[in-house]
Design brief:
The structure is a homodimer. Chain A is of the alpha/beta class. Helices cover 35% and strands 18% of the residues of chain A. Chain A contains 21 helices and 26 strands. In chain A, the strands form 7 sheets. In chain A, strands 1, 2, 3, 4, 5, 6, 14, 15, 16, 17, 18 and 19 form a 12-stranded mixed β-sheet that branches. Chain A has a 3-stranded antiparallel β-sheet with strand order 7-12-13. In chain A, a hairpin with a 5-residue loop joins strand 1 (42-44) and strand 2. In chain A, helix 16 (370-388) runs parallel beside helix 17. Chains A, B: It catalyses: (6S)-5,6,7,8-tetrahydrofolate + formate + ATP = (6R)-10-formyltetrahydrofolate + ADP + phosphate.
Chain lengths: 579, 579
């Protein structure tokens, strides 16, 4: 079969582009109207895009709340298993069943789009539009995050320069700068050089905008006032006595809030089948919670019957943070979870295939091998269990790829059935919403089992559990570790934060997303290992503690042939090379 | 008189804010419709703001071209003489006379707004709206310029890192990075530190976004294809043989163009009296030409009867570049010029008052002193002559301030009459368009004297004049210098550019805007001095050579109490402290 001899990606990038180009956008006001948003809260921002003013939350407060669905996945292969396409396909499927359904997604980062990976707007017949605007700038929210973040950085260095009170220790400044580009040369630098009038020399660096704590704050704030409060709590460094200094003390939090006023309004777009799509905020999935915004979900929940939101990476990563960080911050509880699997990821987790990030998956993954699917199933079963650890039984979505064999799909169904989980094949990439109708039906059934007032959902740990125990609970209960090894000084550091009142915060463990463990080479559901925590940091503004269990790169680089070299305009002014 | 005992600013910042807050914006579609723009070319971007697609140029190509008016000024005092308010007041005055008139302005830079100076949206009853959006982000054009600029920078460092061909010399890279903030600590830095995987260590730095050559390119491009061509010509550094390396060779120009596609569309807004305002591009007024975009002017000229555009700083600076750089690039010729003067600036130029930038003007400027006005008049007469050097006789607008005395205004009128120039008092800040009706009538009369086909306008120098002679002609003919002293090596450098075909480019002299000379302390119309040119640079993308005749700072710093510390939201979520 020729489709198997090549890259098993279901739709080639050029197919995505031609499908997107052939699509006719509906006026965004029409999408907003069908979603029931008050007209005065809808502010068009170019063709097919609007911002939703937060007054919509008040206007819709009395409307019944829709069903809240999170899409997560098994531990992914490097190219990913299609959570975004599945979330988009699912709302299109729900729409075909007559429901008003909205999808809530993160905004993709521009840097990687210009670097290696191409855009992040779905694929095939499950895409959000307009692709070009989503992948580049959109309505400028990422730029606003960078501006607010870097204003604080400039004010911190200005604070040093003018020796303002409280006196900062130049070597204890933890607030870096950010830019939405892959620019390795900015990772480590010495700034403040020149003469006496050019600042105080010190080490510094840039991270990509998605890694900014301001981005995490934007995603977790539930109002403008809450945004203001969180920004004030951002810690920029230590004073001469070792006490934390905040953005409030630097005098930056008000101006940062004003810079983020437009960015706090969720962006409304549409899928290929004109289902509403809210694309808003894009925090990192390792050092932050990797979920789109609370305000977008909240608005959508009071407007739609179903809101489907995607959580970054696997159920142990974005899924866990959705439950324990995002839902804890919002007070919203999910009604159902969808767990995306693919035949190829199941085979990948059997550990017999060599996969190189940035390269097509090996053709060995294409041979019919239901036994490999079963062998790799340990990962799926563990991730199903990870969702169940929060009181929800997921619906498994088998995201169909052209190279899949019926025997392999059957193996997945069998595995799921063995643990009482419903699994549905979804061909939304090839068929759009029609291909996701079976999945949508399964989902509706799953949510019907959940009575609004006797919700089974629960957090993995209570607020009052000590920080060390929170980290251990995630590591042992979700990752399958035998325990946690804290580097010297970490326990003391966590205890000092508890003494300052930060002990009630949830935790976020920054590790590879390629394994349930901290080691990307350990596939399936590894046993007999311990999680090493080498460092902990406090995101006091966003409201979580994060523990580093791996080498997390917060500023990517470009390869020798970046995507940007192939992006251009043609003679008619159309964009080429961006997908 | 109590109004004289305080800061003589005509409307206090809080007045500006309360006037702006009380205003009711018309739907921007209504403004666009009255301007005759085709509906499909108008893309709303939030309340009261739209982008105009460049298809409007084609759609309007057959419409008659309106009158093209440039607003310039005498050499300003530190707080400025109100060119922006005059341009806005003038279109409101023209509108009261029944004309369709549009104002075309630069987009203010965000960094200084958060630093010292407050916003740049006019004042009193001559403002453009919405103020907050204009001063912060607007539609993201400055962010797009920074993204395109910094993408090229990242690709240059990536080029070094991977040792791609042509091989760049790390010490000959001239392409800096940019950010739209006042951040002195980024002026000089060493980047590429860390390990082998973190780039090549070298010196670098950041400038403010307005100083980016990409900004100058955006303002001068007359189509998307022209933008693409100019970006390709940007010079990033030298190769190992000392030959220039361009953005085209780095492979960045296509992606930069795509990043700027939305930014190339002019922004449409409105004045307090609902006159159309096109706010687009904001290049520096010293190292670049300091004028708003050609595409905005071109679209407006085919839609309105009168287009009034502001050129940065005095007639020797932005005015000169409007005539010799912007009009040369566009092929458009101006029909009239307005030269803004104030009583206080006339007195300032008599040289008897000590004015400190960033502080209120001294109260000594408020005493009735028509003799001082006459003494300072040398500057006005020279700037009138500078406009006349291009074939146009300006209309002088006396921008009224509360502290002005009738005898002083009469002195200005007398001085102008002595050289055959009409001068009108304009109270547009206090009275809106009604206060500018006399000025508008004088302007209409001035343009009626200009027959479209026998236009008196001409450039100061022809393309083929050698670069050295172009610099000398501007210095001697406009600035009043006795000659130019070129630092060693400059003449050779200019000759080498001529040998490469750059000799046909116009020149831009970067000097202080506070004096006709290069020395801010020399007021009036100084004689007996020579212009020192210490360095020349080639803006091959924008299409001009610039000569540095002073210490031009391209990255401002913050003072010990930046404006940002006073910007915040109030309990209702309204922005406070931004004006």
């Amino acid at each position: 079969m020729p489709t198997q001899a090549t890259d098993p990606t279901p739709a080639q990038p050029n197919d995505n582009l031609s499908i997107a180009r052939a699509a006719r956008l509906w006026p965004i006001e029409e999408i907003a109207h069908r979603l029931g948003l008050p007209g005065e809260a809808v502010e068009p921002y170019g063709r097919g895009i609007a911002k939703i003013d937060l007054t919509a939350m008040t206007a819709l407060a009395e409307s019944p709340r829709g069903r809240y669905v999170v899409v997560t996945s098994m531990t992914p292969t490097p190219p990913g298993e299609g959570k975004t396409t599945t979330a988009i396909g699912l709302v299109q499927g729900l729409q075909r069943l007559g429901h008003c359904a909205a999808v809530a997604l993160r905004q993709p980062s521009m840097g990687p789009t210009l670097g290696l990976k191409g855009g992040a707007t779905g694929g095939g017949h499950s895409q959000v539009l307009p692709m070009e605007r989503i992948n580049l700038h959109l309505t400028g929210d990422l730029h606003a995050v960078a501006a607010a973040h870097n204003l604080l950085a400039a004010m911190v260095d200005n604070h040093l320069h003018h020796r303002l009170a409280p006196e900062l220790s130049p070597r204890d400044i933890c607030w870096q700068r950010v830019i939405d580009l892959n620019d390795r040369a900015l990772r480590h630098l010495v700034l403040g050089l020149g003469g006496r009038g050019d600042g105080v020399p010190r080490q510094g660096g840039f991270e990509i905008t998605a890694a900014s704590e301001v981005m995490a704050v934007l995603a977790l704030a539930d109002s403008l006032a809450d945004l203001r409060k969180r920004l004030g709590r951002l810690i920029v460094g230590l004073d001469r006595d070792g006490e934390p200094v905040t953005a409030e003390q630097i005098g930056a939090a008000g101006a940062m809030t004003v810079l983020l006023k437009e960015a706090l309004k969720p962006n409304l777009l549409q899928t290929l089948e004109h289902a509403p799509a809210l694309i808003h905020a894009g925090p990192f999935g390792n050092i932050a919670h990797g979920n789109s915004s609370i305000v977008a979900d909240r608005i959508a929940l009071h407007a739609a019957d179903f809101v489907v939101t995607e959580a970054g990476f696997g159920a142990d990563m974005g899924g866990e943070r959705f439950f324990n960080i995002k839902c804890r911050a919002s007070g919203l509880t999910p009604d159902a979870a969808v767990l995306v699997v693919t035949v190829r990821a199941m085979k990948y987790h059997c550990g017999q295939h060599r996969v190189i990030p940035g390269q097509p998956l090996p053709t060995s993954l294409l041979a019919e091998a239901p036994g490999e699917v079963m062998a790799g199933g340990a990962n799926l079963l563990k991730q199903i269990d990870n969702v169940r650890a929060h009181g929800l039984t997921p619906v498994v979505a088998i995201n169909a790829f052209p190279g899949d064999h019926p025997s392999e799909v059957a193996a997945i169904r069998e595995l799921c059935a063995s643990v009482g989980v419903r699994a549905e094949l979804s061909t939304h990439v090839r068929d759009g919403g029609e291909g996701a109708v079976a999945l949508a039906e399964a989902l509706v059934e799953a949510t019907e089992g959940v009575a609004a007032d006797t919700d089974a959902f629960h957090y993995l740990y209570p607020d009052e559990l000590p920080l060390v125990d929170k980290i251990e609970r995630i590591a042992t209960r979700l990752y399958g570790a035998d325990g946690v090894d804290f580097a010297p000084g970490i326990r003391e550091r966590l205890a000092s934060w508890e003494a300052r009142g930060y002990g009630v915060l949830p935790v976020c463990i920054a590790k590879t997303h390629m394994s349930l463990s901290h080691d990307a080479r350990l596939l399936g559901a590894p046993n007999g290992w311990r999680l090493p925590v080498r460092e902990v940091r406090l995101s006091a503004g966003a409201g979580f503690v994060y523990a580093l269990a791996g080498d997390i790169r917060t500023m990517p680089g470009l390869n020798a042939s970046p995507a940007a070299t192939r992006i251009d305009i043609d003679d008619e002014g159309n964009t080429v090379g961006l997908y």
